[in-house]
Design a protein that fits this description.
Blueprint lengths: L22 E9 L2 E8 L13 E8 L1 E6 L2 E6 L3 E4 L5 E6 L4 E7 L5
């Protein structure tokens, strides 16, 4: 099997202004059932509950954020990471305007 080489190279820390509200998702790489995303957050999260089909491992690279899982607040600072299994309801309660994430989504049912 040949290694997958991305078509575009980039820098996770390049400066992109955050959106006015919510988050901007950029797919960096997709291989089989794995998708890697760069997420840029605004200081104004969109209220709502996320329930995803895929498992997700996420690391906060810059800034601060608060996730709410099972009614408990999970405070994150740069370098903190967590695993969100498929089907787990969670909310993005708070993000700093400079919050930058790296998310790895895993669909184990995909070839």
């Amino acid at each position: 099997m040949q290694p997958v080489v991305p078509e575009v190279e980039g820098n996770l820390f390049r400066h992109d202004p955050p959106p006015a509200t919510g988050e901007r998702f950029e797919v960096l790489c997709r291989v089989g059932g794995v998708r890697i995303e760069r997420i840029i957050s605004s200081a104004v999260p969109v209220p709502g509950t996320y329930v995803q089909h895929d498992d997700e491992w996420v690391v906060l690279l810059r800034g601060k954020a608060t996730l709410r899982i099972h009614g408990k607040a999970l405070e994150l600072s740069a370098g903190d990471h967590t695993f969100l299994p498929a089907g787990l309801a969670h909310e993005v309660e708070r993000t700093s305007a400079d919050a930058l994430w790296l998310a790895v989504h895993m669909d184990l049912e995909s070839p």
